[in-house]
Design a protein that fits this description.
Layout lengths: L2 H19 L6 E2 L2 E2 H5 L2 E4 L2 E4 H13 L3 E4 L2 E4 H10 L1 H4 L3 E4 L3 H7 L8 E3 H5 L2 H12 L8 H20 L10 H6 L6 H10 L19 H6 L6 H15 L2 H18 L1 H16 L1 H19 L4 H30 L7 H23 L3 H20 L16 H34 L5 H37 L7 H21 L5 H25 L13 H19 L25
Antiparallel strand pairs: 1-2, 3-4, 5-6, 7-8
Helix pairs in contact: 1-17, 3-4, 4-13, 8-9, 13-14, 14-15, 15-17, 16-17, 16-19, 17-18, 17-19, 18-19, 18-20, 19-20, 20-21, 20-23, 20-24, 21-22, 21-23, 22-23, 23-24
């Protein structure tokens, strides 16, 4: 590849990344300065975040999207949260709850139709029955719940989240916050205690001379004796302005609240501003789009003008990798943690590793398969991450067992690189299987390059998965007092190491050749996926941080597809001709260096 061509592609990727991450313009909805409200720092889940993150995560959990369509108009997450807190009579009628389980709909007396979104008012009419069924389902072990039981618990949890959001600033059955502030302290102690108990987040930053974690909810501030927090009165004005739909007064109140936050906690205000920028940039969504475009353009190059479209597809892949990398770095910066802290971030990191390795393979071989596999792996892992995001805050506080930056940056990152490399090897082998069925006379040179790349990637995966597993044992020895305990996650990590080692030894010993090597590489996807997600579905062991019953069908379908593709590797090619094995991977009496 020419130097100026590479520079042009790099500039293209950086330009797209810069456009995606550029500061958003001042957002105005019907004249309201929503952007000023969205950046307000609050405390929820043990960390400071912008109100925008609360709104997006909550609406994503309820609806599956970060916006809602109401009466033909798209309602942003921040505007929806304002309605829920200060105009609940309006928000209660908005269809934001995704309900599609047929048994749940039957219990609610609702017919199945194309309308999959229900309002809080509709569901509240059957509230006692929903609560009763949810309580009964909670008495059942999560691993033994039926589909209906899982769906009803999920619906109840989402309703409870909405109820808490509605009661964060004021009780729907009580007076508005401005009126509550005007009432005497002795007028409603029970109401204020309920307000403190229900609040979902804490919007009142501590004074500069108070501890950094001493954020308070509105109910706590109202119940506290002594002088009132001045920010309470501003929040009251903001709520009254939104209820009256007074854009000018709303803008002044939002500006005042930001000034108070910057005066009291400038670092929290700055962090909130950065996270708001990250939320609006949505780099991983942009990455998914670029990966899809790269793959589609590569497919087009197989039919028309490959000399033009193949380099263009690689440019799109480079752009996607750039945006993906920028998003990953931004998360590390925002969290102050290594890149892998939970399943969501591990999906992003695994995809990033596969994309970088695939990009390197494309640079080396230039035959399109690196672009194909990297773009598919990048899109698939970011899609998995997108679905995992619906569980809540993806930058949640660390669990105590993981709260160690050193080991997160060594063991977790190293073994996750092994995951990504193993998946890339499997992806290359999947491309080999599909190519054998679609192409009547596959090019022998491309086949050799594909087999060689798979072999080298397996070597790379073995190194990192082995080192990562050993580092995990050292961490376990320091944390739990034993190097190895046959925990399900430990067993899964060992299986990945053993499987990669078996692939190489089978090839070196001459037990498998081209087709066998590729079939075993595809099977590596099964082993890795079970170690990555399967352990969490078991719900047992020190490494299981949440039972994932909802992903069982998806995992089972993935495993079945990989076994089918592994079998396809062993079938004769479509044209009936014998494939040419790569000289690099011919049987040898002694181990050979990685290709």
């Amino acid at each position: 590849m020419k130097a100026h061509s590479l520079a042009a592609r790099a500039a293209f990727g950086l330009g797209l990344a810069g456009a995606a991450l550029a500061p958003a313009r001042s957002e105005s909805t019907r004249g309201f300065d929503i952007a000023a409200f969205a950046r307000l720092p609050v405390l929820e889940g043990g960390r400071v975040k912008p109100v925008d993150s609360i709104a997006r995560n909550s609406l994503l959990a309820m609806r599956g999207h970060q916006d809602a369509v109401v009466d033909g108009r798209t309602l942003g997450a921040d505007e929806w949260l304002l309605e829920a807190m200060f105009r609940p009579e309006v928000a209660d009628q908005q269809p934001v709850f995704f309900v599609d389980d047929p048994d749940v709909l039957g219990m609610l007396g609702m017919a199945q139709s194309s309308q999959r979104y229900r309002s809080f008012a509709e569901l509240l009419a059957r509230g006692p029955e929903i609560e009763q069924q949810a309580d009964a389902a909670r008495a059942v072990d999560p691993k033994a719940r039926s589909r209906f039981q899982g769906a009803i618990v999920n619906l109840y949890d989402r309703l409870l989240l909405y109820v808490r959001l509605r009661a964060t600033m004021q009780l729907p059955s009580g007076p508005p916050l401005a009126a509550e502030l005007a009432a005497g302290d002795a007028d409603a102690p029970d109401r204020r205690a309920e307000l403190a108990a229900r609040a979902f987040f804490r919007p009142l930053a501590p004074m500069p001379d108070r501890p950094a974690d001493e954020w308070r909810s509105v109910g706590e501030a109202l119940a506290q004796p002594g002088p009132r927090d001045p920010a309470l009165e501003v929040w009251g004005r903001l709520g009254a302005a939104w209820a009256a739909q007074d854009a000018a007064a709303f803008g002044r109140a939002a500006k005042n609240l930001n000034e108070i936050a910057e005066l009291r906690r400038p670092s929290s205000a700055a962090t909130s501003e950065r996270e708001l920028l990250f939320n609006r940039a949505q780099p991983f969504y942009a990455g998914m789009v670029l990966y899809v475009l790269a793959f589609l353009m590569l497919c087009a190059s197989w039919l028309w003008k490959p000399g033009l479209l193949r380099p263009a597809s690689f440019g799109l892949l480079a752009a996607g990798a750039t945006v993906h990398t920028a998003g990953l770095v931004a998360r590390v910066w925002l969290q102050g943690r290594p890149p892998v802290t939970n399943l969501y971030s591990s999906a992003i990191f695994v995809g990033w590793v596969a994309v970088l390795l695939g990009t390197w393979l494309e640079r080396r071989h230039g035959r399109g398969f690196g672009t194909a596999v990297a773009s598919v792996c990048g899109f698939a892992t970011l899609l998995v991450a997108h679905h995992l995001a619906s569980d809540g805050d993806t930058m949640e506080m660390m669990r105590a067992v993981l709260d160690s930056n050193f080991w997160l940056a060594t063991h977790v990152v190293t073994i996750t690189v092994g995951y990504g490399a193993t998946f890339l090897a499997g992806g290359l082998a999947v491309g080999y299987a599909v190519r054998r069925r679609l192409v009547r006379e596959p090019d022998a040179a491309t086949t050799r390059a594909l087999v060689s790349a798979t072999y080298g990637t397996v070597c790379f995966a073995l190194l990192f998965s082995f080192v990562g597993t050993v580092l995990g044992g050292i961490w376990a020895d320091q944390s739990w007092g034993r190097f190895w305990g046959w925990d399900p996650k430990e067993n899964g990590a060992l299986l990945i190491v053993l499987w990669n080692a078996i692939i190489l030894h089978a090839r070196w010993g001459g037990f498998v050749r081209e087709k066998g090597l590729m079939a075993m590489a595809v099977a590596g996807n099964v082993v890795t996926s079970l170690s990555w997600f399967g352990v969490n579905m078991l719900g047992v062991g020190l490494h299981s941080y949440g039972f994932m019953d909802g992903a069982f069908k998806a995992l089972a379908a993935f495993v079945a597809s990989q076994l089918l593709l592994a079998g396809m590797c062993l079938l004769p090619p479509r044209g009936g001709t014998r494939a040419v094995a790569s000289p690099r991977t011919q049987p040898s009496a002694r181990p050979r260096a990685a290709a």
